[in-house]
Amino acid sequence: MKTAHCVPVLMYHHVSPETGPITTSPKNFESQIKGLVEKGYTTLTCNQFADFLAGKPTPPKSVLLTFDDGYLDNWVYAHPILKKYGLHATIFLVTGLIGEGPVRPCAEQSDNPLPRLPSHLECRALWAAGSTDSAMLRWSEVQAMREAGTFEFHSHTHTHTRWDQVSKTRDECLAHMRKEFEASRALLKAHLGEVSEHFCWPQGYFAEDYVRMAQEFGFQYLYTTQAYGQNLCASDPAHIYRFAVKNRSARWFLQRVWTAAHPVVGPLYNKWRSWKRKFRA
What we know:
TIM Barrel; six-stranded parallel beta sheet; two-stranded parallel sheet; globular; signal; hydrolase activity, acting on carbon-nitrogen (but not peptide) bonds; Glyco_hydro/deAcase_b/a-brl; Polysacch_Deacetylase; NODB_dom
């Protein structure tokens, strides 16, 4: 049986008609998802991805789709598109921003008006103001997506704070991070009944002491925002590469996925992009 050489892990944030940074339009997102189906790709669960890293046979054309933070538009637009094409994705939740209340309309419910979706910059302003319901998911919507099989949910900390930037000492920073892990795990356990071994770093920052602490809390699969590397069989589960998906059509998207997974082109591309970034810096 043929097995995957590399599994690209893709990073999304928003799927929304609102324009702005880290936002993919519903039209382009659907073209990307439809393209995966037409080209015969398999979207893995996080456990299936963990099995791949451990050496278990995995379909050759496999990807892992991930979303960060837990925005309302993931329910309104991404969920119906994934459901339509029968694919699966993951959301790393900032648990302290997820609210209570009934399920709101999504795009598959055409008879009901859709909620207004704030842009990414508006979402961050709402975070700062402590008014997140119009920007973020509710636990009822999390449960609905989970039951539909379109999304699974894992930790992205409790507040998404870069404590290394606001703490006076490293000990203070680590004390805050410990509380982040504790609070996130408690809410996931309360609402989902379980906490997985998968965790995504907020704003992509991590250090050796962060990694050790995450592992102490049972998180073994640690997802970064570092794009220029390959997730191969027997790769370090504490350093999982992801690349950001741009707001482009299926043609660009499928080429980027193919490049990321190729045993020769992929490493050459990553080396060139890393050099280019360093040169610009």
